[in-house]
Amino acid sequence: MRPPVLSPCPPSLQPRACRHRRRPWTLGLCALLAGAPWVAGAQVTGTQAAAPPASSALAPPPAPEASPPASSAPAPAAAAPEAGPASPWSQAWSAWPAQAQRIATAPWGEDRQTVARAALGVAGLVLLDKPLTRAWQQHVEKPLQGFHLPEAPGPLRHVGTGGTDGWLALGVAGTWLGGWALGDAQAERTGLAAGQAMVWSVVVSELLLKTVTGRKRPQDPWHPETDAEGAFTDDPWDFGHRRATRLPSGPMGTSMPSFHVTVWFAVAKVYADSYDSLAWPYGLLVLGLASDIQSHRHWVSDMVAGALIGTGLGAVVRPAAQASGTTRPGGGLALRLDGQGRPALAWSRAW
């Protein structure tokens, strides 16, 4: 029996594409259009069998294969998808309780030996504070008397001493915002950790320790007339004066430790550890502390205590800045080619 002749073109396309049967390219086009849906279906499912040749139309159908016996064991549960890395913001937010616990337990916790050595060193400096502070005022503050940075813009000029702490806050905020906009997770985490270091500096140095010590500031040998409130003294052991616990604080009983030094050392520690560099973080620290240095009015032991406390606070928040990953998924600023092959900057952000 003669097998049926298969048309190279489906009936639905014959009126339009197969009327020119003498042109070979029309037959190829029809075959391509007819087979495209089946090829796509085979790629999606991957289970359809190939069509039998025309000569096998009279062959008996194959016997169905016996299905294997159903197993009584339950099918294994599908593995849960792995959770992606937490965002820098959520990492910083979740780090607050652990940071508070470590700071609160520092005198008797795992850092007790370090805290004890630092306290003994500062106490030893108090014994020598009078000659050391006079030498500091004469050989450091006096030569830098006219040096000061421009005031920070807007309300930031009221932050800290001489407006330089406002520049510090602006730089920290710029680090976080730049990291968020560019998809740089390391910069974003560093900015958030530096912001945490600033907050802890206010809590520990300005609100807690200044209230506990209540120490008077040293007199300014060049401007003794500025002590109208009796907040300055020549006695380095003049502690225990009550002060109003508020922000910003006044000069009375607010000498130890130096908040200005604390916050700069805390932020510098975060940046130095995050970027494995000492030069530029501490170089900016020296520049910021040298600005308007005569308005600080601190004993040498006050500044050393602030440096030690700030370094410790920076070390506490450091793990949040050193989390894994340097780029953040979900967008950022990238250099791409537009539709005409020209380079262009593209910014995107995923939420």
TrEMBL record:
<keyword id="KW-0732">Signal</keyword>
<feature type="region of interest" description="Disordered">
    <location>
        <begin position="51"/>
        <end position="92"/>
    </location>
</feature>
<dbReference type="Pfam" id="PF01569">
    <property type="entry name" value="PAP2"/>
</dbReference>
<protein>
    <submittedName>
        <fullName>Phosphatase PAP2 family protein</fullName>
    </submittedName>
</protein>
<dbReference type="InterPro" id="IPR000326">
    <property type="entry name" value="PAP2/HPO"/>
</dbReference>
<feature type="compositionally biased region" description="Low complexity">
    <location>
        <begin position="68"/>
        <end position="92"/>
    </location>
</feature>
<feature type="domain" description="Phosphatidic acid phosphatase type 2/haloperoxidase">
    <location>
        <begin position="197"/>
        <end position="319"/>
    </location>
</feature>
<feature type="signal peptide">
    <location>
        <begin position="1"/>
        <end position="42"/>
    </location>
</feature>
<feature type="region of interest" description="Disordered">
    <location>
        <begin position="216"/>
        <end position="235"/>
    </location>
</feature>
<dbReference type="InterPro" id="IPR036938">
    <property type="entry name" value="PAP2/HPO_sf"/>
</dbReference>
<feature type="compositionally biased region" description="Basic and acidic residues">
    <location>
        <begin position="217"/>
        <end position="226"/>
    </location>
</feature>
